[in-house]
Amino acid sequence: MHKILVFTDLHLVSAGEDIIGLDPAARFAAGLAHALARHPDASHLLITGDLTHDGRADQYARLKALLADCPLPVTMTIGNHDHRASFHAAFPDQPRDENGFVQRVIDAHGHRLILLDTVDEGGSPLHSGLLCPRRLAWLEAKLDEAPDSPTLLFMHHPPIPTGFAGMDRIGLRNRHDLATRLRAHPQIRQIVAGHVHRTVQGAAGGVPVALLKSPCHQMPMVLEAGNVHLSVDEPGAYGLILLHDGAVIVHSEDFTLSDTPLGQDGA
Questions:
Q1: Least confident window among 42-46, 145-149, 220-224, 255-259
Q2: DSSP string, 6-69
Q3: pLDDT at site 259
Q4: Domains of the chain, with CATH numbers?
Q5: Taking the mean position of all CA atoms in its chain, how far away is CA 30?
Q6: How far apart are CA 225 and CA 140, in angstroms?
Q7: From the CB of residue 259, how many other CB atoms can be counted at a distance below 10 Å?
Q8: pTM above 0.70, yes or no
Q9: Contacts for 133-141: CB closer than 8 Å, 24+ residues apart
Q10: Which secondary-structure segment (H or E) carries 247?
Q11: Per residue in 7-35, pLDDT tens?
């Protein structure tokens, strides 16, 4: 059984700033330390966007420093709070397809992991996502390359409605175009996304979808809220993906809860 660590929605701010009194850099550092200590046998770290809060060069520099000693290979894509050009400038070795989108394929442990760039800078509504024809064509080509490889897709904007009124307005606008391609490629076993800052399960085109929480702040559980900027200090989390004989298992681990010593219940 092989392990992949997944973080999303880091929202790193500039030094001296915070989000609802929380330091996103400290929260990510704590979450990464927690994950590495408990899963030292993980083979890769994936981060699915909103790496920064404002897409500033100094915020990407803070992320680079936090990842400097990570013992795992790290692959990232971007989210609606990121800036594509600034990301490329800060991380020139990170994914970039022929059109400059932050997309990559990783073949690992008999599975194919595909990271997609769903950012639509300047799109309407602002902060909503899009998989344009070029990105969909790129995805289809990568799927056609390995029709027998169990495949996972990682992206920022979820390809499903979540029931959160405000967040659904800034979701993936053309999720039906993606769903059409999902149905045509039965090797796709799982989609992992973020954006909403809640743990959510669903399905798109018959494919299971898992949304992961942020290591920092979460969306309050108020489905009818139209305000997408609502935040609450609930436990931060990261994802743990288990790959085993073509099967995919997704865990969400809250790391800011107090550790309880292991014991026996006498049963």
A1: 255-259
A2: EE----B--TT--BTTB-HHHHHHHHHHHHHHH-TT--EEEEES--BSS--HHHHHHHHHHHTT
A3: 64
A4: 2-254 (3.60.21.10)
A5: 18
A6: 36
A7: 7
A8: yes
A9: 134/99, 134/101, 135/99, 135/101, 135/103, 136/177, 136/178, 136/181, 138/97, 138/98, 138/99, 138/101, 138/103, 139/103, 139/114, 139/181, 140/181, 140/185
A10: strand 247-254
A11: 999 999 999 999 999 999 999 999 999 99
The DSSP result for 66-117, as a single string, is: HHTT-SS-EEEE--TTS-HHHHHHH-TTS---TTS---EEEEETTEEEEE--
Q: Give yes or no for a contact between 153 and 188, defined as CB atoms under 8 angstroms apart.
A: yes
Partners of residue 135 on adjacent β-strands: none
Query: And the tokens for 46?
Result: 């994936």
pLDDT above 90 for 2: yes
Supply 28's token pair. 């990510």
HSE-CB at 22 with a 13 A cutoff on CA atoms is: 24
- CA distances in angstroms from 18 to 55, 170, 250, listed in the order given: 15, 23, 30
Strands 111-115 and 247-254: unpaired
Give the residue carrying structure tokens 């809060």. Answer: 53
Residues 86-132 have pLDDT tens digits of: 999 999 999 899 999 999 999 999 999 999 999 999 999 999 999 99
Structure tokens at 14: 């500039």
